[in-house]
Amino acid sequence: MLTIPNALTALRLALLPVFVWLLFGERMQTLAAILLAVLGATDWVDGFLARRLAQVSTLGKVLDPAADRALVATAVVSVIVYGAVPMWFGLATIVREALVSLAVVVLASLGASRIDVLWVGKAGTFALMFAYPTFLLADGRAAWQGDLEDAAWVIGLAGLVLAWVAAGAYVPAARRALAGRGGRARRARAG
């Protein structure tokens, strides 16, 4: 349980309230955006370290996706409330995350075998976690912020499309997993 990757994941979770406090309590938009970018960038670090250091744990397999979902939800809702991104864009992000999260819970409760994360989904999440801090930094009247907002839209829309493509690609994988290929469902039918 006490591993470097799990400690990093716990630190990411602990820093989420700091991000919200910086953004809304202290009104330190730039610092909040930088912290959000760092939290998003470290999303893959804990998994990499777990594999590299041979510290993959059951706790980490649960804690990391939970931290990822908490990070996305906190980031998206905060940036919407702050007014740096339109509601439709934030809702498109949140709805996709909610559907995927719900599907994971339902599949697990039905005894489906584990579905591997798709590269397109990782790319979409990475782009979105880059876009949201960029939208936050771009929210203002300075000339450079307009260019930054354009970049945020390009990256954000690409990330959103990739994320939804990944969600659709999980449907056939979920059907195979429910068919019991290697999961508890097949063992239950045999028993």
Q: Sheet bearing the most strands, described? A: none
Q: Work out the radius of gyration.
A: 18 Å
Distance between the termini: 33 Å
Number of domain units: 1
> What would CATH call the architecture?
Up-down Bundle
**What would the CATH topology be?**
Four Helix Bundle (Hemerythrin (Met), subunit A)
Question: What string, H for helix and E for strand, traces the elements in order?
Answer: HHHHHHHH
CATH class categorisation: Mainly Alpha
Q: Indicate the structural class.
A: mainly alpha
Briefly summarize what is shown.
The protein contains 8 helices and no strands. The protein is mainly α and 191 residues long.
Give an overview of the whole structure.
- Mean pLDDT is 88; it is low at 183-191.
- This protein has one domain (4-182): Up-down Bundle (Four Helix Bundle (Hemerythrin (Met), subunit A)), CATH 1.20.120.
- Helix 1 (4-25) runs antiparallel to helix 3, helix 4 runs antiparallel to helix 5 (87-109) and helix 5 runs parallel beside helix 7 (143-178).
- The longest helix has 36 residues, at 143-178.
- It is mainly α and 191 residues long.
- 82% of the residues lie in helices and 0% in strands.
- It is globular, with a radius of gyration of 18 Å.
- It is built from 8 helices and no strands.
